[in-house]
């Protein structure tokens, strides 16, 4: 019995010592905003360009700027809209804490050639600081085969409140190109010798003219690949290869063939040109398959 009592007392003091030891060190971790480790982490993470870290209690944000944005990066596409504008992405902004003076936030884009923004200025005060405000970034749908572009968006804060951290927020934005290519297959395939639509797609993807990294498909029709059920409507499409509101080029990336409408149908007039074998571009040419990337 005394042995059991001694063990119990030892365990009691061990637990008490452990609790006291942990209490003394409890503020020395990167997830506690009152610790030196947290402050050091803020400096290191900002130098590395990292804005958050995983902690046992969740995500700890190391960005000390008064500006809070719901997205760390953006991505929009020239497709998804019409022939003028593409897809949009919404950003939500608010302040991290209540300011004494009004805070004005200016939106600055590194290049306005590729996108539009719904508004360039946001204003917060001591009443509205926690109420989210939104703006939209929308891609411009140009007719240039110029690939994906990367730009940056800066949110720049101004205020007379000297206690606020007015460090600008920088958000990278990627604009996806929607221009495509058309080419005539290198080899002629007569009488369906390509093995159906799936076989034709395989041939197209392995064709020497198919640009590296692209998925090339055959612009042919059948029961499993339908462009339209009614003339010029684009209704009842099945596995159709053309994209809506896109411009199609030759694989030289210079010669424009035509654009599609919102129903993914090529529009007339086409930009006619001559192939090396001296015939005009048509949907099917001397048994050669028309290929889409």
Automatic annotation (TrEMBL):
InterPro entries xrefs: DUF1554
Highest taxon listed in the record's lineage: Bacteria
Pfam families membership: DUF1554
UniProt domain DUF1554: residue ranges: 191-271
Protein name: PF07588 family protein
Organism whose genome encodes this protein: Leptospira wolbachii serovar Codice str. CDC
């Amino acid at each position: 019995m005394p042995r059991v009592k001694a063990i119990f007392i030892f365990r009691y003091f061990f637990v008490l010592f452990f609790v006291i030891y942990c209490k003394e060190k409890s503020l020395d971790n990167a997830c506690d905003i009152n610790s030196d480790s947290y402050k050091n982490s803020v400096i290191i993470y900002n130098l590395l360009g990292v804005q958050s870290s995983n902690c046992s209690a969740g995500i700890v944000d190391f960005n000390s700027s008064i500006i809070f944005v719901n997205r760390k990066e953006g991505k929009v596409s020239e497709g998804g809209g019409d022939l003028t504008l593409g897809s949009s992405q919404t950003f939500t902004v608010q302040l991290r804490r209540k300011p004494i003076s009004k805070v004005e936030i200016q939106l600055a884009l590194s290049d306005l050639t590729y996108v539009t923004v719904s508004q360039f200025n946001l204003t917060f005060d001591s009443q509205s600081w926690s109420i989210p405000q939104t703006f939209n970034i929308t891609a411009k749908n140009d007719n240039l085969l110029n690939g994906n572009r990367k730009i940056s968006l800066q949110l720049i804060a101004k205020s007379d409140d000297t206690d606020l951290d007015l460090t600008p927020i920088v958000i990278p934005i990627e604009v996806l190109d929607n221009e495509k290519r058309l080419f005539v297959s290198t080899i002629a395939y007569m009488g369906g010798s390509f093995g159906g639509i799936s076989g034709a797609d395989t041939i197209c993807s392995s064709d020497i003219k198919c640009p590296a990294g692209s998925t090339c498909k055959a612009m042919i029709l059948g029961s499993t690949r339908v462009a339209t059920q009614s003339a010029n409507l684009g209704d009842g499409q099945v596995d159709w290869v053309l994209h809506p509101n896109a411009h199609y080029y030759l694989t030289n990336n210079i010669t424009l063939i035509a654009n599609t409408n919102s129903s993914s149908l090529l529009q007339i007039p086409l930009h006619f040109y001559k192939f090396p074998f001296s015939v005009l571009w048509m949907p099917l040419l001397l048994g050669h398959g028309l290929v889409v990337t």
